[in-house]
Specification:
By secondary structure, this protein is mainly α. The chain is built from 16 helices and no strands.
Length: about 375
């Protein structure tokens, strides 16, 4: 099973991308909850600090948990040049690619509405939440892919990126909310909240605003587009190299620095997807991609012949998750793996704590994904 990563490399696939996606999804499906559970039982100082990072900040600021969603969006952007640019180079019709991107975006938006519980409530608009995590991924992917399809080079895409970021900054800092003024970034009187209440039908997750609302979705295009720029750096026709990894890392450091400078007057707020938040998470994502790319695609540390195959086994563990990321996200909404884990290891909960249930759920989730992997079953949108 370790040889699969080597096969991906031989086929020209970016082997590190599936591994990084799996690393990201691990925290969504229970990795963070496992650390929080262990911290409660062990009460070790350093582990409590780590566990705090597994919770979203209340409003402004940043924890590791706040990186997980934008990292996934960044990764979806990295895949765009591999999925689209290759077809364009072979003479594919641009409008056909546009329709495929639109179809993918619409399907993800519909999946998001279903994930939000549209089918287990009375079918009334007031019961339906249209904004969603999957919807935001689909929305941002569609626009980022469209920009890649209809622009000729990286310079044009950078101009689009700058335009999106400047526009969001201008709206959030200088467009006044009626009766409130401009520059407010709170969950009631801010421009994000105002536009969500004004333009989004149905219910809002935050009552007065939605963390995947209108401005959030538009702002998040920048994160996916930065991922596409990273993918363009890696897919330049040249062999994997430390130079590419260094380019990604340096770019990430520069983007991260700009984010920190902006944050001195423009706060980092995930629920509003402010520009500093976009740039901070994209900067970190660039650096993480550089590390995974350098280790897997450049240095080949996941080769079965190195370190008794330990690196390959670790990478394969994440790859199994990353290859069916949307599948496990939706399945966890339908099927309670923790209930199933309680059936098998519930007798240990009293003596070991709730973390054993979380660990059991993670094991069951991975085994389910491994079964799909072995059967070559992948949900492709």
């Amino acid at each position: 099973m370790q040889n699969q990563i080597q096969t991906d490399k031989q086929n020209g696939r970016l082997a590190s991308l599936d591994v990084l996606r799996g690393f990201d999804m691990l925290w969504i499906i229970g990795g963070g909850s496992l650390i929080v559970g262990l911290a409660k039982v062990l009460d070790w100082g350093w582990l409590n600090v780590v566990a705090e990072q597994m919770e979203h900040v209340r409003w402004d600021g940043f924890h590791f948990e706040d990186l997980i969603f934008p990292l996934f969006m960044f990764i979806s952007g990295v895949a765009i040049p591999y999925a689209i640019s290759s077809k364009l180079e072979k003479g594919a019709d641009k409008f056909s690619l546009f329709k495929k991107a639109l179809k993918r975006g619409v399907i993800l938006i519909l999946f998001g509405v279903i994930y939000n519980g549209a089918l287990h409530r009375p079918l009334a608009l007031s019961n339906i939440r249209i904004p969603s995590v999957l919807g935001q991924i689909g929305f941002a992917y569609f626009f980022a892919a469209t920009i890649v399809i209809y622009t000729k080079n990286m310079k044009s895409r950078i101009l689009w990126l700058a335009g999106i970021l400047v526009s969001i900054m201008a709206i959030q800092l200088w467009v006044p909310v009626p009766g409130q003024g401009a520059g407010l970034l709170d969950p009631v009187n801010g421009i994000n909240a105002y536009l969500d209440r004004l333009l989004i039908p149905g219910r809002l997750h935050g009552k007065t605003f939605d963390p995947e609302g209108l401005l959030c979705c538009i702002s998040a295009i920048s994160v996916t587009l930065m991922g596409a720029l990273a993918g363009g750096i890696l897919r330049d026709g040249k062999p994997a190299s430390g130079k590419k990894a260094a380019t990604l890392a340096i770019t990430g450091a520069c983007v991260l620095t700009i984010a920190l400078l902006l944050s001195t007057f423009y706060p980092i707020i995930k629920a509003c997807w402010t520009v500093p938040f976009d740039m901070l998470t994209s900067g970190i994502s660039f650096i993480l991609l550089a590390l995974f790319y350098f280790a897997i695609d450049v240095k080949d540390w996941t080769s079965p012949d190195r370190n008794w195959g330990i690196g390959a086994k670790k990478a394969f563990f994440f790859k199994v998750i990353g290859m069916n990321s949307i599948t496990i996200y939706l399945t966890c909404a339908i099927f309670d793996f923790r209930d199933a884990a309680t059936f098998f290891v519930g007798f240990l909960e009293t003596s070991l704590g709730g973390w054993i249930i979380v660990l059991g759920a993670l094991v069951l989730e991975w085994l389910f994904l491994y079964f799909l992997y072995k059967k070559n079953i992948f949900l492709k949108v």
